[in-house]
Amino acid sequence: MGIDQQTAYAQSSDRAGRRRKADSRAGERPGDSVRFWRERRYDDLECLKARYYRHSYTPHTHDTFAVGVILAGAEAFRYRGARHIAPAGSLVAVNPDELHDGEPHSDSYAYRMFYPSVGLIQRLADELSEDGRAGANGLPAFRQAVIHDPKLAARFINLHSLLEHRSPKLAVDEAFTGAMTEMVRRYSVIDPQGRRLGRESHAVRRVRALIDSEFMQDLTLAALAAEAGFSRFHLLRAFRREVGITPHAYMTGRRVAAAKALLAGPEPLSAVAVTCGFYDQSHFTRSFKGWTGLTPGQYRSGLTQEAA
Predict the structure, then answer these.
(1) Distance of CA 296 to the CA centre of its chain
(2) Residue 307 DSSP code
(3) Helix, strand, or coil (residue 60)
(4) How is residue 145 annotated by DSSP?
(5) 278 contacts 267 by C-beta, under 8 angstroms
(6) Is 7 exposed, middle or buried (0-12, 13-18, 19+ CB in 10 A)?
(7) Where are the alpha helices (DSSP H) in the chain?
(8) What is the C-alpha to C-alpha distance for residues 201 and 230, in angstroms, rounded to an integer?
(9) CB 291, CB 251: distance < 8 Å
(10) Residue 198: CB partners within 8 Å, gap ≥ 6?
(11) Which residues of 90-124 are buried (b: 16+ CB within 10 A; e: fewer)?
(12) Torsion angles phi and psi, residue 88, rounded to 5
């Protein structure tokens, strides 16, 4: 059974509160460390290298896949209604539009993550098919959230390191194609239903379209329910069932996505916050880091390191 969205947020807040209390009892912990960059030639592939002591991800979704390797410690996360523990040396894989969170299982964890687009993974799956038409039958989806495959994990660590250090393009291309293709070949299946988004009922699709166009506004549940022709309670249940998250969480995700695009430009962070519908810069920073693991400033800094 899938975890209820409100329960997920409550659990996340409780865990964060317990961690803050533990920190105050145990003394100051080392600070989190992150490095982020984006690889333009791999369909704007986002890459993250991080060690988290305190950070707990808000329950959130990605419009990309999330694939990575735990380097040290262990990450705990909820995904598809179950709690998973990913220890050092394991691979983690999360499909697009799937609700999940993440936090240290004990003291901390370190990982290297990739966020490949749906199109990028689709092309790899198509190349693996005999007739090059895998996409005609559905979209690839990873079967397992935690994968124990030391040899493949080592290949992903090598690939991430090559990208981080701006190694020669041919060496990177060979490592990228080898590691990602093996991941898709061994651990994905073709999902005939494709991604969750775009398959909603007409009423829920109208609400999603309204949020997509008006996410910077202070929308109300009553207005969204009126768009669907539902009661507020009916809309909450239908939207969460069909989209996977609540309307408010979906709107936050749209705001974060819009902020990512604006952070590539020169606008001050305060202006980006207002433009995207956050009520102040503090709210912007909390929400953005809850979804991405990065502050807006860290994300912007990483964009300046893009490979051409």
Answers:
(1) 15
(2) B
(3) strand
(4) S
(5) no
(6) exposed
(7) 5-26, 118-128, 150-164, 169-187, 202-214, 221-228, 232-243, 247-263, 269-275, 281-292, 296-303
(8) 12
(9) no
(10) 205
(11) bbbbbbbbbbbbbbbbeebbbbbbbbbbbebbbbb
(12) -55, 135
d(CA 281, CA 272): 9
Report the sign of the C-alpha dihedral through residues 44, 49, 55, 60, in that order.
positive
Which amino acid appears at position 212 of this protein?
Answer: D
Q: Tokens for 262?
A: 């604006």
Digitized pLDDT (tens) for each residue of the chain, 308 residues in all:
344 444 444 444 455 455 544 444 444 557 899 999 999 999 999 999 999 998 999 999 999 999 999 999 999 999 998 999 999 999 999 999 899 999 999 899 999 999 999 999 999 998 887 654 444 566 899 999 999 999 999 999 999 999 999 999 999 999 999 999 999 999 999 876 555 566 678 999 999 999 999 999 999 999 999 999 999 999 999 998 888 889 999 999 999 999 999 999 999 999 999 999 999 999 999 999 999 999 999 999 998 766 44
- Alpha carbon distance 99, 82 (integer Å): 11
Amino acid 96 reads P
pTM for the full predicted model = 0.84
275/41 Cα distance (integer angstroms): 29
Which letter, b or e, does each residue of 216-240 get, where b requires 16 or more Cβ atoms within 10 Å of its Cβ?
Answer: eeebebeebbebbebebeebbebbb
Count the neighbouring beta carbons within 10 Å of the beta carbon of residue 288: 27
Please say whether the dihedral angle defined by the alpha carbons of residues 118, 123, 124 and 128, taken in this order, is positive or negative. Answer: positive
